[in-house]
Design a protein that fits this description.
Layout lengths: L1 H9 L1 H15 L1 H12 L17 H4 L8 E4 L4 E3 L7 E7 L4 H17 L5 E7 L4 H11 L6 E3 L14 E5 L5 E6 L7 H12 L1
Parallel strand pairs: 3-4
Antiparallel strand pairs: 1-2, 1-5, 3-6, 6-7
């Protein structure tokens, strides 16, 4: 017993580190918290492509002919190609995905700030196999973003299998941001980019 106490006194920091490591391995919420700290630095954020000057935008960023549809809880179907004239924020996520959990509070803040803007549409597309798991996650965290799920296949130009993935379409339906991985969407610099996109 005395040897154990001595060992603990000498190695308390190792025991603490191992405990934290085990917690991060088994708890999705702990992983999400750590990842949230990383994305809050803004180092993982990508930029919205600027509208080209000189060359036509079509040459810089060709039109996307593929579209897809999503469905809400009430069965309403939304076709992405029918949203031209609006800026569209699309986020593909799943409740079991720690990076998705890490960035979701920032998506909620972004949604709250812009939800009254008719010219901006939020498509937060849940990819859980069990849709109830996604709904329960949003309810548990008190997130109010739209709960949508795919109504068929999603073209690879939008989603290639990496979670989370965020795509922003401009008012002409062109992809101006395609970001695979987590990011912080509650930064003022991101809001400034969205405001510029809304004015185009």
């Amino acid at each position: 017993m005395e040897k154990s106490k001595m060992w603990l006194k000498k190695n308390w920091s190792t025991v603490l580190f191992v405990g934290i490591f085990i917690l991060l391995l088994v708890s999705p919420d702990a992983k999400a918290w750590l990842m949230r700290q990383i994305i809050s630095t803004g180092l993982l954020n990508s930029k919205i492509e600027k509208k080209s000057v000189g060359k036509p935008l079509e040459e810089m960023n060709p039109s996307i002919s593929e579209s897809f549809t999503v469905k809400d809880e009430n069965g309403k179907i939304i076709n992405v190609s029918g949203l031209k004239g609006k800026v569209v924020f699309i986020n593909f996520w799943a409740s079991w995905c720690p990076p998705c959990r890490a960035e979701f509070p920032s998506i909620q803040k972004f949604f709250e700030k812009y939800r009254s803007r008719d010219e901006l549409v939020f498509l937060t597309v849940n990819l859980d196999e069990d849709l109830d798991a996604g709904k329960m996650y949003l309810e548990k965290e008190k997130f109010t973003v739209p709960f949508l799920f795919p109504n068929g296949n999603i073209p690879k130009v939008y989603f290639n299998g990496s979670l989370p993935t965020t795509v922003i379409l401009d008012k002409t339906g062109k992809i101006r941001l395609h970001h695979a991985g987590m990011a912080d969407y509650s930064k003022d610099s991101f809001y400034e980019e969205i405001d510029k996109l809304l004015k185009e």
